[in-house]
Amino acid sequence: MAQAKQVEPFDWHRIFWSEDAPPAFLGEVALRCAITYLLVLGILRLTGRRGVRQLSIFELSIILALGSAAGDAMFYSDVPLTHIAVVFLVVGLMYLGFNFLTEKSVRFSDWLEGATVCLIDEGRVEMTTFKKQNLTQKELFGELRQHQVEHLGQVRKLYMEATGNVSIYFYPDEEVQPGLPIWPERLKKAQLEITDAGSYACSTCGYPNTLSVGKHTCSICQNQRWLPSSTAKRQA
Predict the structure, then answer these.
(1) For residues 142 and 139, what is the distance between their CA atoms, to the nearest angstrom?
(2) pLDDT tens by residue, 131-173
(3) Closest Cα partner for 92 from 60, 46, 41, 51?
(4) Which pTM does this prediction carry?
(5) DSSP letters along the chain, please?
(6) Residue 4's Cα: distance from chain center in Å?
(7) Phi and psi of 156, rounded to 5°?
(8) Which pLDDT score, from 0 to 100, does residue 77 have?
(9) How far is Cα 38 from Cα 85, in angstroms, rounded to an integer?
(10) Which end of the chain has a smaller Cβ tally under 10 Å, C or N?
(11) Which pLDDT belongs to residue 50?
């Protein structure tokens, strides 16, 4: 049984030069990088002028897969560039074909890229829909705070798009509803027992209600913690 070759630490010749390829192979590496980069650039051009957050799950999976294939082709001498070109060609054709199908079939589009869903309606979190998303309350409220939202009563509609972006529609100032405050320091003070009667909002779904002293259960999500509701106007 052959013994494994012992590695000498800080062998600068081994670190900078391959023992299996001559220094001239660096020229081939440079050529491989240029050709592979052009192939990647060509595929990305198919996606148009989209940013990273606008990429669908399918498009992101293509980029990850091609990134792995391109990386191997750049410096592995036993990976023919013709094979990589075929991979890029097939993936490119699949991308165009799937785009065609998504334009022709709404059902296929929703299956591949995900459907647009309403997560907040009339100042309340749509819990049935929200629970189906791979999303936490902290993430949802974080998105709202980035749009200078102080409480849910300022939000008329919030849609989660297929790309993962959110589209928010606000109430005019004169129509702002009592809503759940979403500042982290306020959320931490949710009450299990109401000590002063007044207007409150469920700390989970944001359902507003006028509560008397004592313990109460939200009729929407069965949560038992409440916060005094806010009617502050949105400051953009």
Answers:
(1) 5
(2) 988 889 999 999 999 999 999 999 999 999 877 789 999 999 9
(3) 46
(4) 0.66
(5) -PPPPPPPTT-HHHHHS-SSS-TTHHHHHHHHHHHHHHHHHHHHHHT-S--GGG--HHHHHHHHHHHHHHHHHHH-TTS-HHHHHHHHHHHHHHHHHHHHHHHH-HHHHHHHH---EEEEETTEE-HHHHTTSS--HHHHHHHHHTTT--BGGGEEEEEE-TTS-EEEEE--GGGPPPB-B--HHHHTT-BSSBSS-EEEEETTT--EEEE-SB----TTT----EEE-B-PPP--
(6) 45
(7) -85, -45
(8) 74
(9) 11
(10) N
(11) 56
Residue 118, both tokens: 């309403």
Which tokens go with 78? 């036993």
213 near 194, Cβ under 8 Å?
A: yes
